[in-house]
Amino acid sequence: MIYLDNNSTTRIDPRVLETMLPFLTDSFANASSTHKFGVMAGRAVNLARQQVAELLNCNPGEIIFTSGATEAINLAIKGVAESYCQKGKHIVTVQTEHKAVLDVCYYLEGRGFEVTYLPVQPDGLLDINTVEEAIRPDTILVCVMTVNNEIGVIQPIKEIAELAHVNGALFMTDATQAVGKMAIDVEAFDIDLLAFSSHKFYGPKGIGGLYIRQHSTRNLRLQAAIHGGGHEKGLRSGTLNVPGIVGLGKAAELSNIQMHADAELIRILRDHLELSLLSIPNTKVNGNKTTRLYNVTNILFKDCDSDALILGLNDIAVSNGSACTAALIEPSHVLSALGLNKEDAFSCLRFSLGRFNNSDEILDTVSAVNLLVQKLRMLA
Ligand SMILES: Cc1ncc(COP(=O)(O)O)c(C=O)c1O
Predict the structure, then answer these.
(1) Do 338 and 238 have their domain in common?
(2) What is the CATH number of the domain that holds 73?
(3) Which CATH number does the domain housing residue 276 bear?
(4) 331 within 8 A of 108, measured Cβ to Cβ
């Protein structure tokens, strides 16, 4: 397998797996237990919280572990909606958000909330003026993703957070594609809520978290998403997933150490791949090419059906959008928001690279795509 679908999920780093293994075997105690073994498990959880906090530049107490980004996003948006509905019932978000955000917003619309879905520019970036125009006195939350999962564009979240705060709203970001891959500083960016997921940066699946600002200036109160034994400050009850949390912590530590080195190598591979694929006639990159994360390229191959490309590429794993919506036959809502027509939106592939790719894989991919595109266009 040549794996170029790292925005969908990543291979677990062997160092992460090694750190987790004892917690799946001998050290299996419940982190809430008061016996010696439970205390040891609790210490491992505390270390992981510290490792994640170092990655985000926050206090460990501001991290709530969840099953992943989808749950963290649900906790954040529904939690704010329920806690702040006395102040207002208006939320501002963007058309190109992940379905995890959009579907929560649709749910809240059915419960009396009003949501503004901002359009993006043809390059996928948000025009900051549209944010300012959309915020109203009853806006309680502005929610804008840091990095788009399909095209990799990086939104100006620092500026958007400032706008939200000046106008009395909270700012949340779905940073699932950013955390572990680029420097995120919740202090410097003045973020109130940030969702992330371990399996996007070489950690295990089924674990992620939510950063919740706990400062004297903005000390957020959220309604719980899952009620029960009072774990995670009562916001997310349920026995802690100790092996998962330990793995997430290790993945965060590794990203903190090697993020910049990874970025340099991956960018070279991505640029090589992109440049080579663009030499195929009638191809184009979707989204802004400069304000973009280094690991992804989304390319339109005119008159080639993306499903046929994925099938034909066989041992090369690529994607034609968000895996979470792959069962739907609608074109990608992100590509549609960029202004692509239905036919073009169904002719795009996302290549997302990671820590474990190498230049041989890029060469093989380029020749395989080249041949396949020629073949499909001949059949068309
Ligand atoms: C931008 C974005 N948000 C949220 C999610 C959902 O993450 P999880 O799989 O951890 O629930 C994903 C995963 O594809 C994503 O890319």
Answers:
(1) no
(2) 3.40.640.10
(3) 3.90.1150.10
(4) no
Q: Is the CB of 174 within 6 Å of ligand 1?
A: yes
Residues 78 and 175 in one domain: yes
DSSP tag of 35: S
pLDDT in tens, 135-145: 999 999 999 99
Mean pLDDT of 75-90: 97
348 lines ligand 1 (CB under 6 A): no
Q: Which two tokens stand for residue 93?
A: 């978000």
pLDDT tens, 141-193?
A: 999 999 999 999 999 999 999 999 999 999 999 999 999 999 999 999 999 99
| Dihedral over Cα of 154, 194, 331, 353: its sign | positive
Host domain of residue 352 = 2-8+259-379
Q: pLDDT band for 362, please (50, 70, 90 cuts).
A: very high
Q: How much distance in Å is there from the Cα of 69 to the middle of ligand 1?
A: 5
Q: Distance from the CA of 77 to the center of ligand 1, in angstroms?
A: 15
Q: Give the start-end residues of each E strand in 166-205.
A: 170-174, 193-197
Query: What's the Cα-to-Cα distance from 24 to each of 41, 245, 248, rounded to whole Å?
Result: 11, 12, 14
pLDDT of 327 reads 59
Domain boundary among 211, 232, 253: 253
Q: Is-contact 154 291, C-beta < 8 A?
A: yes
Which pair of tokens denotes residue 302?
């005119």
Q: Is 324 a catalytic residue?
A: yes
For ligand 1, is residue 197 a contact (CB within 6 Å)?
yes
- Residue recorded with tokens 């191809």: 283
Q: Measured from the CB, is residue 286 less than 6 Å from ligand 1?
A: no
Domain match, 148 and 277 both: no
Q: How far apart are alpha carbons 303 and 151 in whole angstroms? A: 20
- Of 204, 229, 253, which residue is a domain's last? 253
> Ligand 1 centroid vs 70 CA: distance in angstroms?
6
| Strand partners of residue 115 | 91
Query: Does 216 lie in the same domain as 67?
Result: yes
**Distance between CA atoms of residues 197 and 303, nearest Å:** 35
What residues are paired with 3 via a beta bridge? 317
* In the predicted structure, residue 324 carries a pLDDT above the cut 70: no
